[in-house]
Specification:
This protein has 581 residues and is α+β, with helices and mostly antiparallel strands. Helix content is 47%, strand content 19%.
Length: 581
């Protein structure tokens, strides 16, 4: 991506970042990738074909040579050699360079051995093979044990009893071949002959094919041929060069044709639309009112570009109408914003906001805060003295958000306040408030509420919960506990609901924390919630802090967890610190 904008670029920079150049580059890269895949696939098929043909030919030549071999002499001599091999201790087997080892086999390397060796040598030279030899295959150790080597040179030939170690699957293919499945045969694959491609540092890349002469105990005696594969490497190089030249020509032709077509069908119309957009912007800056910049292009490509041109033309017409109405809409939005700000201030005045709320009372301290997710919210709290020895506390969360929730919140708060003052009982207040709200709740909204009445002289709280979050108590030693009270149903959900009361006992130095679900359900962009575990970790150990400091600590923890993400739900908290007499 360019670091400069198009307007800051010079002529050559624009050309380098143009659609034509990008199209050419992309086409060449795709064609090159296609070429690499085709070259790899072609080379693999070519190599496999030659390998299969070589294995087949080597195996067939080994079978033909076995027919011309004097089998009686070969069988007798190889059995004699294997007998000597078996008599040699394992620790010196295969050490063909030691005189002790060679002396053990010299008695069997008689005239018959030389005649068989000569027959193998003649076959090797007539067929142009690398080597011809008789071996014994030991499948237990994966060894190919040389018995008679065609090399007449005593210094370089493989002494009887020396061996090479092969991989198990190479031994298996050499001895048994490999049969393909019926499905593979239908696809044109053939049974694998008794031949394998191997690489040994001493011999290089070679094809070893063989035919079985006989089996004796754990040994399978075979006549094997080695064919050099140097010609495969040479022919593969030639194939690659020719194939690469062909692919380069094809890629070049594809690139030229593709770029020409894309320029005509895509780049040119897009440039025309870019020019029309530039003219439109210049006309608007100069005060011109023309709205036919895109309509005058008359692009008739019959594809998405023509559709885009028509869409831009319609958009230009619509935009002119939109600009004409923009001032009116902006003024209306400003009016709505002003009314929302006023509603937010009215809502704030309905909640206690002066702290300390009861400076003349030292038996307790209370603090609350609320952060609506929008200009106005549905959460609310309240606290007031019923008499000198009873403090009512309430926290609630209205379903929904925004203005509807705020209106429902204000009506619910007034009803609940009045019911608490009239009844002095949290449960009765919830029941009567529920009945009053259900008489005219066409929008089917509801509110979760927790109400508690503190007996200031004793620290005893009578409370009732209508579907709200469970309160937290911080004991004098700083240990935090969630009060698992019995939730009743929400207020405004069903008619004739009954609610239960329960009691809490606060010791001097204890704190009661109430909150709405916006606290534990505060989420990050990855939908990771703050949760009750983190909330308990924050409040646990709050021993020597005030009610305000406790709520501010929770607030800071939530904000740090959420970060810069937008607040989804209203967040409201209330903390009562009970000091006792």
């Amino acid at each position: 991506m360019a670091n400069k904008s198009v307007r800051e670029m010079g002529k050559h920079e624009k050309r380098r970042h143009s659609l034509s150049f990008k199209t050419l580059l992309t086409t060449q890269l795709l064609a090159l990738l296609l070429g690499v895949i085709l070259v790899a696939a072609g080379f693999l098929l070519y190599f496999l074909g030659i390998m299969w043909e070589t294995c087949d030919r080597t195996s067939n030549m080994a079978a033909a040579e076995a027919l011309m071999l004097d089998r009686n002499d070969a069988d007798a001599k190889t059995k004699e050699i294997l007998k000597v091999y078996d008599s040699i201790p394992e620790e010196i087997r295969g050490d063909g360079s030691s005189s002790e080892y060679q002396d053990r086999f010299l008695p069997v390397m008689d005239e018959m051995f030389r005649e068989l060796q000569e027959d193998l040598r003649i076959t090797k030279e007539e067929l142009g093979l690398r080597n011809s030899f008789i071996v014994a295959i030991d499948e237990e150790t994966n060894r190919m044990i040389y018995l008679i080597d065609s090399d007449p040179d005593m210094k370089t030939f493989c002494w009887p009893g020396t061996w090479d170690t092969y991989k198990p699957h190479e031994i298996s293919v050499l001895v048994y071949g490999k049969r393909v499945s019926a499905l593979q045969r239908q696809l044109g694959l053939r049974d694998r002959p008794q031949a394998t491609i191997t690489y040994l540092p001493a011999y290089g890349l070679r094809c070893t094919g063989g035919t079985i002469l006989y089996k004796e105990g754990k040994y399978t005696v075979m006549l094997c041929l080695d064919e050099k594969l140097d010609h495969m490497i040479t022919s593969s190089k030639i194939f690659l060069v020719e194939y690469n030249i062909l692919m380069f020509i094809v890629i070049l032709l594809i690139s030229i044709i593709s770029v020409a077509l894309i320029r005509r069908s895509m780049v040119r119309p897009i440039r025309q639309m870019a020019g029309a957009a530039r003219d439109y912007a210049e006309d608007k800056q100069s005060g011109e009112s023309s709205s036919n910049h895109f309509k005058d292009l008359n692009i008739q490509s019959g594809d998405e570009i023509e559709e885009l041109s028509l869409t831009m033309s319609d958009m230009e017409t619509s935009l002119a109408e939109y600009v004409a109405n923009l001032t009116e809409v902006t003024a209306e939005q400003e009016h709505i914003r002003t009314e929302l700000n006023l509603a937010s201030r009215i809502q704030a005045t309905m909640l206690p906001s002066t702290f300390p709320a009861f400076p003349e009372r030292d038996e307790f301290d209370i603090f609350a805060l609320m952060y609506p997710a929008r200009e106005v919210g549905g959460d609310f709290y309240d606290f007031f003295l019923i008499d000198d020895d009873h403090l009512a506390m309430m926290i609630a969360d209205v379903s929904g958000k925004g203005i509807p929730a705020a209106l429902f919140m204000m009506g619910s708060k007034i009803i609940l306040d009045n019911r608490i003052m009239d009844t002095g009982s949290p449960a009765f207040a919830l029941e009567q408030a529920n009945d009053m709200i259900m008489t005219n709740n066409q929008e089917e909204m509801f509110v979760t509420v927790w109400i508690g009445i503190l007996e200031i002289s004793t620290g005893r709280i009578v409370a009732s919960n209508a579907g709200h979050e469970k309160p937290l108590v911080i004991h004098p030693d700083g240990h935090a506990e969630m009060i698992r009270d019995k939730n009743g149903f929400v207020v405004g959900g069903l008619e004739n609901m009954k609610y239960k009361e329960y009691e809490l006992k606060l010791e001097p130095g204890s704190k009661l924390i109430l909150y709405t679900d916006g606290v534990p359900e505060a989420s990050t962009a990855a939908n990771d919630q703050f949760g009750m575990v983190r909330l308990l970790e924050v409040v646990n150990g709050m021993k020597d802090v005030s009610a305000q400091e406790a709520l501010e600590s929770i607030e800071n923890a939530v904000k740090e967890f959420v970060g810069e993400d937008e607040q989804f739900d209203d967040m409201t908290m209330l903390c009562l610190q009970y000091n006792g007499k």
